[in-house]
Amino acid sequence: MRQPSWQRITFRSGAVVLGLLTAALASGAPSTTATAPKLSSGQTAHIEEALNRLTWGAAPGEAAQIKQLGLQHWIQLQLHPDQIPENPILVHKLAPLATLRMTPEQLEAAIPPGFKIRQMAMGKLPLPSDPKARAIAEVELANFRKRTARKQDAAAPGNAMTAHGGARAQALQRLAQRLTPEQLRSLRQGTPESRVQAFLALSPELQQQVLGTIPRPMAYQLIAWAPVELQRRVMLAVAPQQVIANDLTEGRLLQAVYTNRQLEDVLTDFWFNHFNIFINKGEPERYLLASYERDAIRPHVLGKFYNLLVATAESPAMLFYLDNWRSVSPAAALAQRQKQIERLQKAQQRLSLQLAQLQWNPDRQNFLRQRLGQIQARLKRLRNAPSPGINENYGREVMELHTLGVTGGYTQKDVIEVARCFTGWTIGVPGTPGGPQNHPAFYFNARLHDNDPKTVLGQNIPGGGGMQDGLRVLWILAHSPATAHHISYELAQRFVNDEPPAALVNRMAKTFLSSDGDLRRVMETMINSPEFWSAAAQKSKIKSPMEMMVSSLRATGANVENPLRLTQLLAQMGQPLYGKEPPTGYSNVGQDWVSSAGLLSRLNFSLMLASNRLPGVRVDLAQFAPREGDALAVSGALFDDLLDGQVSPATRNTIFKALQEPVRPNAVRKAAFATPENPHPLSPAQVQLTAGLILGSPEFQRR
């Protein structure tokens, strides 16, 4: 079988390209010249620069549209995203991802979480009455019973493997009863695309029967190459709870690639990273993250910082992630525990008395003995439970990461005092004590709050304030000069330079304080500064894997029908979406993303994208490369469209050398296109290779 073009780079040329990438990215930003422009409607020189840093990357034709609109007007629109109609293509592509539009309550009802499935399996909870939710619950119940059976067989590994193989064989037998031999063979053999087409060729009734009996390995073979609608149908039939995480990651990527509100989306990514939450902290996070990003982050990225801070503090996702839902006043919790013990002791005495008086009724005695045993077990658990108390996680991170910064002047005593102020901020059924096993909504439990006076950063907070104690802390932090500097520094670091100029950061901080933390005004100060447009800022930042992937997809005008494989590759590049476990989030420092393994992953992705080897993604390079013309014309068009013509001699020569590598030993060497004396046209494979190497070049890795 003939190798695709992206696989036909020899080890030597691949090493040359990787060496060029590593050396160029480690050496700092390329030398450029620029002036600080006055952004008028006639300003055109800095359009590409604005696209590189205020969006996920330029899309074909976008620079021309901005030139016609006027750069200043375009920037103002991006700063007011509510005035920009959303891209109908994005609306269409997000439509199947229904969980992104659900509240946590709706999501829990549609796809029951694991603890409810376990209760259903034990008969403690009925199946959902809604037919769709009931079907999903039945799938998860079957999965739960299979996992339970495998655990029971763990003592005999050989038997477990046999049972697993037997279950698959039984599933194939059931499929054989529903399909013709040719249909079954088409689903099991051939290319992934042909298997998808074979499934789609079945009648709707037969498709549903197949999904009900298909072995999981066969199902997963369909998923990556199927349209999103079919992918979700398959997942709902075999592993419904995985749909929630898939919708999150795929929706995030589609939003970045297709939204017209590019600056808002880049800022949403920035602020989610600032208020980071890890999707695998526990099962509740999967049910909470969509609403967290949609309701707590995105609406506030160009609003007042205090409102953003409060929205994240009150979010069930943040309360669960940083364990504040467990944080309680020790005295209040012990008093509440003592009341529970006293109630149980009274119930124990009452049942013991009834038991002594019912010697003539054995059935009633047995029931009372059972209830008495349950009460005694609860009493034992309460007496042996560790002493409750405050949890310092949120108190520390809200100052160190979210507001003041690590050098913001707070002490360990401040951490404890802030944690005391947030006792009673918890999640569960509103109005009742609870935890993440209940509906995960925020509520303030006054019984668990520390009502004694506190002192935070030298400011007194009187006792008895209840929930207002926490809100007062957030107000103090949001209006601190240290917070103004920390937030301004991080924004400038993200949009200007890994080491932003102190004068710029100070002006942004001044705007932050004078505007009551108006983040739109802070962004305007940054964008209108000479530092933003200076030579030192141009191409100074190395793209993160997310930035590199999305800018590649936008630059090539890729049609993303199924983002699943893209999200998997992004994880391999070192940036799984919603996958950063520490609360620090992913690094804003571009140099932190430079490593040989990471750069090799980027180069492989670029070559796969350009040669249409990514399932669910298609690019048409014909829009860039002229249909007629010699190698110089074709390569020049690719350089102009994908790199805005800003290609170094080293990159150009490296690509030329890669194109001259032999396909196999003793093969005729490909035509070079280094000089006009060699005007041979590029083959389609060479066009793909050239585009892939351009996307993997040092110039494209910077913004």
Provide a descriptive summary of the structure in words.
- With 703 residues, the protein is mainly α.
- Among the domains are: 1-30 and 540-703, no CATH class; 98-245, no CATH class; 330-384; 391-478, no CATH class.
- Helix content is 58%, strand content 3%.
- The strands form three sheets. The chain has a two-stranded antiparallel sheet. Strands 3-4 form a two-stranded antiparallel ribbon.
- α1 (11-26) packs antiparallel against α32 and α30 packs antiparallel against α33 (684-695).
- The chain is flat, with a radius of gyration of 30 Å.
Q: Topology of this protein?
A:
Elements: H1 11-26, H2 47-54, H3 62-69, H4 71-79, H5 88-94, H6 104-110, H7 114-121, H8 131-152, H9 157-178, H10 181-188, H11 192-200, H12 204-213, H13 216-223, H14 228-238, H15 242-258, H16 262-274, H17 283-297, H18 305-313, H19 316-321, H20 330-357, H21 362-384, H22 393-400, H23 412-421, E1 425-428, E2 441-444, E3 454-456, E4 459-461, H24 468-478, H25 481-495, H26 502-514, H27 519-527, H28 545-555, E5 559-560, H29 564-572, H30 596-610, E6 617-618, H31 631-643, H32 649-659, H33 684-695, H34 698-701
Antiparallel strand pairs: 1-2, 3-4, 5-6
Helix pairs in contact: 1-32, 5-15, 7-8, 9-12, 10-11, 13-14, 15-28, 18-24, 20-21, 22-23, 25-26, 26-27, 28-30, 30-33, 31-33
